[in-house]
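Please predict the structure of the following assembly.
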Amino acid sequence: MNHSKRATALASLALSSTMILSACGGDGGGDGGDSGGGDVKLTMLPKNLGNPYFDTSTKGAMAAAEELGVEMEEVGPQEATPDAQVQYINTAAQQATDALVLSANDPEALCDAIGEARDAGTKVVTFDADTNPECRDLFINQATAEGIAKVQVDIIAEQIGDAGEIAILSATANATNQNAWIELMEAELEANHPDIELVDIVYGDDDDQKSFDQTAALLQNHPNLKGIVSPTTVGIAAAARYLSDSNSKGKVALTGLGTPNQMRDYVKDGTVEEFALWNPEELGYLATFAADALASGDISGEAGDTFEAGDLGEYTVEEDGSVLLGEPFRFNADNIDDFDF
Amino acid sequence: MSTATTDAPTRRTYPEYAQPAWRRLLVTRETAVIALLVAVIVYSLVRVPNFDGPLTLTYLLLDTTPILLIALPMTLVIITGEIDLSVASIVGLSSVLLGVLVEAGWSVPMAAAAAIGSGVVAGGLNGFLVAYVGLPSLALTIGTLALYRGLAVGLLGTKAVTEFPDRWTDLATAKIGETGIPQVMLLFVVLALAFAWLLHFTSFGRGVYDIGLNEEAAHFTGVAVERTKFLLFVFSGAVSALAGVYFTLRFGTARGDNASGMELAVIAAVLLGGVSIFGGRGKLHGVIAGVLLIGVLSSALRLDGVTVNVTNIIIGLLLVASVVSTSVLAWASGLTSRRTPTGSSPQNAPLGVESQGRST
C-alpha cells in the first residue's frame, strides 16, 4: 500500500506541473498590458457571458476601444448573480484597471465591491442595468424606463385592439430594470388602457428553455390570453419560437424587447408583428467612450459635463450622473432587414 | 496467551505500521494536495500579474469562507458514507430568513440566531430521515435541496432585501488589523479546530470513520450509528445557515437564489482534499487545502483574464484527475503487491479496514 501513497503523491506532483503548464498558456494576455505603458486599460463586465445581448454590447465596446486606441478586456460570470459579479469587480480592483464598464446584477449588493474598486482608483460606468446612483461614476441609460414601458404597452394595445388579457414574461425576478419596466407598464395600463388586464407575470430567468416552458404554461393557464409582453431578448425569442409552432400563432400577439437577428424569422413568418429595442452595440460603444473620458480625466461625471462619442456625436451628463442613449426603436417587417445585431 | 505466536506476522498487514512515522505523516494524499496548493501559490506569485497585490489574500479568503465553513461538517458527513446536497439551499434559506427578519425590524444578532436555528431544523429533518427512517441521503437531500430552495424563494418572492445595518455588513468584510486577513477567518479557525478535535481526537470521530468503513460492524462495536449521523446532519445544517448569514452580510443582499450551486463547489473541494466518496477515509487538513486550492486557482486564473468556462474546465479536470489517480494507483499497487513475495495482501486485514478504506 505504501506504493499507492507514494504514487499518489507523485501523481499529484505531475498534476501540479500540468496545471502550471496550462496556466502558462493563458499568461500572454497579462503581459501585453504592461508594455502599453500609461495607456488606458478598460474592463467590460456584462451580467453574464454567452448572452447574445451582451455579446453585441461588447462588440460595440470593443469597436470604441479600437477607435480610442485603448486596451479593453471582457470578463464575466456564467450565472447572472451579484455574488459571482462581485468577484470580477474585486479582480478589477486588484488589477487597478482604469475604468470598469458593467451591467449590474443587483443595484445594492455590488456597491461595497464597487466602492473598493473606486478607492483603488478605478472609474465605474454602469450600462443597461444601474446600481444605486451614489455607487458609480456614470450610468449609460439605454432609454428612459418610461419610454420603454410605454412603447411596449403601445405596441401590444395596437395589436390586440386595446382590450383583453395580457401577460408578461420577464427575466429573473430580481432584475432591476425588468422590475422597473413592469411597474411602469402596470401604471401605463391602468392610466391609459383600462380594458387591458394584466393577468400574470412569469420569470424565464433569461434561460431559453425555461422561458420556452413558461410561455407554454402561460397559454395553458390563461386560455383567453390575447398578448404576451416579454421585455427581455431571451424571453421574447423563446416565446416566439413556442408560438410559431403552436395553434396560438397569429391569435396571441407577442411583443417586447428583442434583437433583429433573433426575431427576423418570427417577424417574417407573422408570429411577431412589431417589437422594440435600442441598439446594444451603440450602448456598449457609448459606455466605452464615457469610461475613457472619465479614465483620462476629460470629464468628472458631474451633471452638465459633455463628451464626444465617436460616430454617435456629443453627449451630456444629466442629473444623477446618467447619460441617455436615445429613444427606443420599433422593429417590424418593413425595417428589420436594415439591422444586423 | 496462546495467541502470542500469531501476533508478529499479522501486525505487518496494517500499512500504517509498515513505514517509519515520518513517512506515514509526509507521504499522504493530504500532503500531495498541500504541496499542489503551495506550488500553485508560488507559481501565481511569480507569473500572474497583480496576484502579489495586497487585496488578493483578502478577496480570496472572503470568497472561499462560505465553502470553507460548509466543508467542515461536509467532510464528516462524507466520511460516514453519506452526503448532504441541501447545504446551498440551507444557505439560501438562512439568507432569506435573515433578510425578512431584519426587514421586519429584528436586530441582526437576533435574526441571525433565528436563521441559524432554521438551519438546525433543516439539518435535523435531513438527519432524522437519513439516520432514523433510513432513507438514502443522496436521494433525500436532492429532495430537500429543492424543498429548502423553494421555501427560500417563496418567502422573499421576487425581491431582494438589501437594507442591512452598515455596522454588520462592514464587520463581514472587516480585516484583522493591517494583515488583510478578514476577521471572519477567526470564526473559521475556531470551527475548524472544533471539527478537527471532534473528528480526529474523540471517540465520536472514530465512530464517524467506523460507520464509513462498515456501518454494520460499527453498530456491533458500540458506535451509536443513528445518533452520530443525525448529529452530523444537524451540524451541516447549522454551519450552512451560519455561512448563509455571512454570505448575506458580505454581499449585503438577501435573495432566494443566493449561493445556488454551491453544494457542488463544497463537495468538489472535499473530494479533492482526499475524502473518499465511499466513506471511511479523509482528513480535515486535506479538505481545507482542497478548498483553498480551488479558491487560489480560480482567483489566479481570473486575474490572468482566463474566462470562467476555462476555469471550470481546469477545476473539473483537476477533480477528475484526482479521482482517477486514486483508482489507477490502487490498481497499479495491486499489481505490484502480487509480485512481491513478502508483501502480505491487504485482504488479510479485518473486514472493512482494507476492502473499503484503502482500495477505493
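Residues 37-142+280-326 of chain A form a domain with the Rossmann fold fold (CATH 3.40.50.2300). Chain A touches chain B through 59 residues (CB under 8 Å).
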